[in-house]
Task: inverse folding
C-alpha cells in the first residue's frame, strides 16, 4: 500500500502540510511578509487529513491487524511516547 491507496494520499498531504508550515515559519521570521491565507489553508488540509485518518486509515488498520497485533502496537507506541 506504499504507493497507492490511503497511505499514498496521506503522504502527499504530509508534504502539503510541511509546505504550509515552512511558509508560516518564514512569516514568523519576517513579520512583513504577506502570506495570504496560509494558516487557513493549513487548517483546511489538517481537517481533511484528520477526517481521512479517523474514517478511513484507522479503521483499515484495525481491520487489517488482529487483536494481538493491535495490542502489541499500542504497547510499542506507549513505550515510545515515554521518551
Result:
Amino acid at each position: 500500500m506504499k504507493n497507492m491507496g490511503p497511505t499514498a494520499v496521506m503522504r502527499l498531504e504530509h508534504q502539503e502540510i510541511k509546505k504550509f508550515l515552512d511558509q508560516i515559519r518564514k512569516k514568523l521570521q519576517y513579520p512583513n511578509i504577506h502570506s495570504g491565507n496560509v494558516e487557513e489553508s493549513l487548517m483546511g488540509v489538517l481537517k481533511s487529513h484528520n477526517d481521512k485518518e479517523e474514517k478511513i486509515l484507522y479503521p483499515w488498520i484495525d481491520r487489517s491487524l488482529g487483536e494481538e497485533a493491535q495490542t502489541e502496537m499500542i504497547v510499542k507506541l506507549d513505550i515510545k511516547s515515554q521518551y
